[in-house]
Each structure stands twice: as C-alpha cells, then as structure tokens.
Amino acid sequence: MLCSIVFILFAITFGRSLSQHCEVDETQHECGGYCYGAVKPVLEYLAILQKRVENCEAKQPADTLSKIAKMDEKLKTLGRVLAIQPKSERSSQERKLAQIDEKLAALGRQMELEKKTLMRLQRLVLFEKIGSKYYYIENEITTNWRDALHKCGEIEAHLVSLQSEDEMKVLRRKLDKNKRYWTDLNDLKTEGEFISATTGLKGTFFHWQEPEPNDMENSEDCVEIRTFSDKDWMNDQSCFERIYFICEASWDDPFDMTI
C-alpha cells in the first residue's frame, strides 16, 4: 500500500511537469515528436517504477503472512504449554491421591490384623474349653434372658445349647452350686414347643426337674439350668427373671478367624 501511494504521487508530479513543457511549444510543434522525445525517458522510468511497486506489493503480503504465521506458531506453542501444565498438575494430584489410598489401605489392613489379634486374646481370656466346646460362664452379673442372649452375641457366642447328657455332666463340674443359668431354649412362640434360639429348631435334649415345665402363672417361657442339688436340672422360668448365664462359643478354634 505504501509503495502504491509513492508511485501515484510521483506520477502526478511528472505529469504536471510534462504538461507545462508541452504547452510552451504546442503552437509550433503541436506536441508531436518533440513531446514524445521529452516524455519517453519519463515513461521508461515510470515503467521501472511500476515494476518496483509491483515487486513491493508482492513482497509486502508475503512478509505480513510470514509474521502472522510466526505469531500463530507462538500462540500454538503457548497453548500446548498451557494444556500440558494442568495435565501435569492433575497427574501429580492423582499420584498423591493414589499414595493416600495406599496408606489408608495399609492402615485398614493393620487395623484388621490388630482386631483379629484382640479377638484371639479375648477368646483365650474369656472362654474355657470344657469337653469338646468352649464356654464362658458368667458367675458375677445377673440379667434377663434377652439381655443374656445379646451379651453372648457380643463375644462371638450364643447362650448354651446342650445336646446330650454327657455335655451336661461335663459342664456341671464348672458351675457354682445353688445358682441358675440361662440356656438358649424358649417357648415364646408356641407354648410347650421349646425352640433353640441358636438354630431356630426344636430342642433335642431336655433334663427337666419334676414337675417341670409347668409354665407357672402362664409366664414361664425361657429355660434355665439349676444347680440346687447333686444333679443339674432344667426348669422353665420367666424370661424377665434376672439370673446368671452361660455362653457357648460360635467357633471351634480360638485361633480361627474365618468366622
């Protein structure tokens, strides 16, 4: 554009000069060969100047496009840098989160291991192997039948569920005399049909004291063991009565943590 303007100004200047020169001799020569001779060098120079202008105009857009292309490349490079930076930051955050997750998982495994260790210690401290089973005999605290059921559950056990005369004979050697202990038997659902709270099935072993069970005052629905004589007997008792209880382990091996 600058080159075009220069060319136009130059042409106007030379045109005015040429016009004045021709007017002087127009009456004599009618601006024939004389005018042409005077104009020819100018025309030749104008042709050269026109060529320069064309070259200038052809070159200028190329330079401009080159500059634009360079600026565009710089912008693209900057864009890539800006795009990579957040991705790098996200990768760093993801690595940190992964490390935290791994630490939490390791802590969880450690806590689980410690929990199992405490459970083993609890089993060894609370329970005693009597015959082929493990029992916890509560001789200090009395409670009703439902609370006794719950307390046994808290230590991985259930209320004692005797299955034979032999089990009863072996167990009675560890029981205090003149005490009463809850078992898992009850007829809360159907009177006279004693169900094991452990299995949900009908009881298979009973050692009733005569004339039990008698459901005195229609209020005796849970079964206790009495140690009032040389023999231990079963008796139906009010479930709200507060007596001692015996918990039978739900596991066979105190070191087996699979249950």
Automatic annotation (TrEMBL):
Species, as recorded: Drosophila pseudoobscura pseudoobscura
Signal peptide interval: 1-19
SMART domains xrefs: CLECT
Coiled coil: 90-124
TM regions (residue ranges): none
SUPFAM superfamilies: C-type lectin-like (SSF56436)
Gene it is expressed from: LOC6902626
InterPro entries: C-type_lectin-like, C-type_lectin-like/link_sf, C-type_lectin/snaclec_domain, CTDL_fold
This protein's UniProt keywords: Coiled coil, Signal
Protein name: Accessory gland protein Acp29AB-like isoform X2
Domain C-type lectin: start-end pairs: 130-248
